[in-house]
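Example record

The entry below shows one chain as it appears in the dataset: sequence first, then structure tokens.
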Amino acid sequence: MTAEVPTLYDWAGGSDQLNRLTSAFYDKVAKDPIVGPVFRHMSPDHPAHVAAFIGEVFGGPKTYSERHGGHREMVMHHLDKHLSEEQRRRWISLLMDAADEVGLPDDPEFRSAFAAYVEWGSRLAKMNSNLGATCDPEEEPMPQWGWGVPGGPYKPSGG
């Protein structure tokens, strides 16, 4: 990324905003009959860990890798959970609602990149969740997500 184009992490509002997002999201999850049972035994630190993961994927500090084991560890958390397509779709819906609720940027370019990551990541989580509990994935690189096709935030023409 060039100096003129912010990372998705910076555009989203950094760690404070991502922590607000995951806090609001997991509040919704806890009350949801479809995905709530999956997270019934969730640690109180779980939302902060997910915020750190998303932050790192979006170009922020490498907190998740340094403190929590990186992408491989995230994959391991999903093994043998047997997530359904209905749960995956609800997870996305609740996350998008939380993004609106906390005021994540709503410009089409950011939301396109955010939605693309959420769609990709949730499909990967569902796929991994159906692998056996004894699966030990090789070192998984941390995904790095960017603006994609739009190439950066919307800039109205000066006219």
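Notes for this example: The CA atoms of residues 30 and 156 lie 40 Å apart. The chain has seven helices and no strands.
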